[in-house]
Amino acid sequence: MTQSMTITRPDDWHLHLRDGAMLKAVLPETARHFARAIVMPNLIPPVVTGAQAAAYKDRILAALPSGMSFDPLMVLYLTEDTDPQDVAAAHASGLVKAVKLYPAGATTNSASGVKDFNKVRPVLEKMAEIGLTLCVHGEVTDGDIDIFDREAVFIDRVLDPIRQATPELKVVMEHITTKDGVDYAKSGGDNLGATITTHHLIINRNHILAGGIKPHYYCLPVAKRETHRLALRAAATSGDPTYFLGTDSAPHTDENKLQPCGCAGCFTATNTMALLAHVFEEEGALDKLEGFASQNGPAFYGLPVNQDTITLTKSDQATVFPESIQTSDGPVTVFDPGYPVYWNVT
Ligand SMILES: NC(=O)N[C@@H](CC(=O)O)C(=O)O
Ligand SMILES: [Zn+2]
Ligand SMILES: [Zn+2]
Predict the structure, then answer these.
(1) Which ligand sits nearest to residue 176's alpha carbon?
(2) Catalytic residue among 144, 156, 248, 254
(3) What is the mean pLDDT of residues 191-202?
(4) pLDDT for 61-71, tens place per residue?
(5) Which family does it belong to (predicted)?
(6) Ligand 3 center–CA 109 separation, angstroms
């Protein structure tokens, strides 16, 4: 039996496109299904100024294969030296849709991030005034905090104080991985949203560590125990507009993943929509997929929903996804859920 579902074309509210050869290889994987994406600025060097964001946007559009359309929504990387006036100008011109806060050392290419949160107060106040969204990688970096607790501790020690001090600031808790994140996002009112990745709906920490270590399941924030995965699934499929899709598709070459000290990130751009259809069907919530992937994000960012659609089809045969995509820097492994999936974008 074939089952089909047509939904408004989705957007990805948290995506890594990288640069150069990697950008060229991964961009079509996203543009095939998604109309827009919030493009993460953690390049080396990071995308800090409006001028750097404009140049990066040009490189993205130049890498887009002819015949494909895609609208990259640019993000500035917040540093302790970020100039509030530059941020305001980049916002006023329509170029920049968010500013990203990385606690220094929290994740891939976060060395230029924030150590002293007081130093970025003037930028946050300016953003609150002009209605520009702050996207947050929500993990503390103190070495004495257990890696599985870093999100919950960040909410208490960093995020809540920022929000108390600047209640008008719009904040997106990126890639939440805990029930604590789900609950805090829900309690936050219209100014607070949260993205949820595809892979955190599928794997818990056992998938990474039990029965042999699986480097391709290692990402940050690291997947937590099963109760948290279930809380994420309940949130994503609830229809609550607080939660929306940010795949955090984060390509690294296999060479960089398969190291004694391997990179964090799951590459899900290729099969995200098929995997989400599988997950939402399992939860008896296929009717909530369009809200999560195509409506709640634009509503939070104050943007129109897309005009066109995609169709997802379920067939009797398991969908064959590529194991990896090729880049001139080497292969990038596509996230494998570990079970057959019968959905695909057709
Ligand atoms: N999610 C990850 O594991 N990695 C991301 C960085 C990030 O989003 O934290 C990356 O840039 O590789
Ligand atoms: Zn992150
Ligand atoms: Zn990310």
Answers:
(1) 2
(2) 248
(3) 98
(4) 999 999 999 99
(5) Belongs to the metallo-dependent hydrolases superfamily. DHOase family. Class II DHOase subfamily.
(6) 10
Tens of pLDDT along 24-63?
Answer: 999 999 999 999 999 999 999 999 999 999 999 999 999 9
Looking at residue 1, what is its pLDDT? 61
Of the bound ligands, which one is closest to the alpha carbon of residue 18? 1
**Confidence at 108, pLDDT banded by 50, 70, 90:** confident
Q: What structural domains and CATH numbers belong to the chain?
A: 3-345 (3.20.20.140)
> Is 42 close to ligand 1, i.e. is its CB under 6 Å away?
yes
Among 23, 47, 77, 108, say which to mutate for ligand 1: greatest number of ligand atoms within 8 Å of CB.
Answer: 108
- Look at residue 143 in the predicted model and tell me its pLDDT: 86
Q: Is 108's C-beta closer than 6 angstroms to any atom of ligand 1?
A: yes
Q: Among this protein's residues, is 86 annotated catalytic?
A: no
Query: Is the Cβ atom of 16 under 6 angstroms away from ligand 1?
Result: yes
The three-state DSSP-derived secondary structure of the chain is CCEEEEEECCCEEEECCCCHHHHHHHHHHHHCCCCEEEECCCCCCCCCCHHHHHHHHHHHHHHCCCCCCCEEEEEEECCCCCCHHHHHHHHHCCCEEEEEECECCCCCCCCCCECCHHHHHHHHHHHHHHCCEEEECCCCCCCCCCHHHHHHHHHHHHHHHHHHHCCCCCEEECCCCCHHHHHHHHCCCCCEEEEECCHHHCCCHHHHHCCCCCHHHCCCCCCCCHHHHHHHHHHHCCCCCCEEECCCECCCCHHHHCCCCCCCCCCCCCCHHHHHHHHHHHCCCHHHHHHHHHHHHHHHHCCCCCCCEEEEEECCCCCCCCCEECCCCCCEECCCCCCCCCEEEC
